[in-house]
């Protein structure tokens, strides 16, 4: 996927369930940024966000486009009357919110592009991170929620709506009676492994969870089961895991990834024959090279494509 308009000055919004990260710039090395708490009042938030972009235009020059990578589900069908709306989200106050329209109303004369936050992060990693040179990969975020996006054949994953891999149902670990926190499915992947799920299961946030806590064993086992499913269905050439939980709390990121890699191998049980899943698995399941900036950098790329 060619990145046209690569030098264009654009705006970017990484719209997450906890915070909106906003930036103006041309690349990861050229970002003026701020953030706002998401809260439960979209009107108040969008007023603050768009006012910030108006001020940045005064300071840095006219924006050529704005890109939005949003939590979802999001209606991405341009022929739909609710195009650009967040639809049936569990996020309080955000169901049926016209996120695209809220930005477009203030900036009617420039393109406003929108995709899922995980597709946005995937695009950032594709141009500047751990997916450079790859046309088939998956980007997973594990934080306030769980989502996954990526590419197949060099195209961002879309379809009927967009992938909702975070809500796949997983085989339960014997003896695990935790109901899960997803208001739609209870014990789906997000319901069992998101940051709020870890908190509900253990009584501690992921950042504070001790390395020896049994919740890490369950967390990494469920993540491994989900990744094995994705490998079987999409056959990605790399799996990138972002989001706050991937830092592993007191366990640490290195051990967190090691546990997941080992358990993916056990779940797949040598069925899929590839060096990537055996001796090279350390380079197959990886954190984002862009770190916490993957999403906002992807929104920059979305905007630059729209500006071309």
UniProtKB/TrEMBL annotation:
UniProt xrefs under Pfam families: ROK
Cofactor: Mg(2+)
Gene3D superfamilies: 3.30.420.40
Its EC number(s): 2.7.1.4
Keyword annotations of the record: ATP-binding, Carbohydrate metabolism, Kinase, Magnesium, Metal-binding, Nucleotide-binding, Transferase, Zinc
Residue intervals passing through the bilayer: none
Catalyzed chemical reaction(s): D-fructose + ATP = D-fructose 6-phosphate + ADP + H(+)
CDD domains: ASKHA_NBD_ROK_BsFRK-like
One term of GO molecular function: fructokinase activity
Family: Belongs to the ROK (NagC/XylR) family.
PANTHER family assigned: FRUCTOKINASE (PTHR42742:SF3), TRANSCRIPTIONAL REPRESSOR MPRA (PTHR42742)
Official protein name in the record: fructokinase
